[in-house]
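Thread: quick sanity check before group meeting

JM: Hey all, I'm pulling together slides for Thursday and realized we never actually wrote out the predicted structure for the chain we discussed last week. Dropping the sequence here so it's in one place. If anyone has concerns about the input, flag it before I start.
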Amino acid sequence: MVRTKRCFLKRLDQRVAIITGAAGGLGRATAAQFVREGAALGLIDIGDCQNLIQELKSIDPQARVIALQVDVTDEEAIAKAINEVITAFQKIDILVNIAGVVSHGNSSDVTLAEWQRVLNINLTSTFICSKAVLPNMRANGYGRVISMSSILGKNGGNPRPWINPEEQKKAGNVAYGVSKAGINALTFYLAKENAHHGITVNAIAPGPVASNMTTNFPQTLKDLIPVGRMGKAEDIAEAVTFLAAESAGFITGEVLDVNGGSWMD
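JM (edit): ok, ran it. Output follows.
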């Protein structure tokens, strides 16, 4: 019997994607997955992405990637960055809003300044970046907008202070949770506004993901994750890729839970 070599189609072949917060853990994992799937990338981060570009080139030496050091809360700078990506690659097919900050503090402790900082970086930046790319997507009749929400935008927070007050001290984060709930609402509105243009708008709500930012996550809360482990950045990147693909065109206005069973709705 003659065995023929199978040809696997790359899910994002010929697509152009922008990833914000590209230098962080979720951004890097998503960028690597997108390169493997054939996408050209515009990497946006307030930090330097040159090391990330080298990592991506090691995956695919022919990868088409540009990096733009931009503050995602600066509407004028974002508009300029979007135009640079269009100039380089002629279009934008996919936007992945990952840029954001973590925050700790319950409703009694968080300051107004911290509240405003978190909502500005997490929620307002998602609006700014989405608004900036949508005209090009509408003109092309195709688009995918995927934003990073969180389980904390749905469940009122992981801690159980009535059982263990220490959980609240280590994992209370009301400003962060509210910013992510706002991303959910923004997703619903943009999905309805843009569906007839061939654009889908979705969000992903991860549960706790192992990273430098979650090293102090209470063991008592880790033990409550049904699958028995915290998430990995690659788990989230795979979900992003699924929603970014053309085959997910009938999914819009969805907040996809990727949390190991920690929250089910």
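AS: nice. The mean pLDDT is 93. Residues 16-258 form a domain with the Rossmann fold fold (CATH 3.40.50.720).
JM: adding both to the slides.
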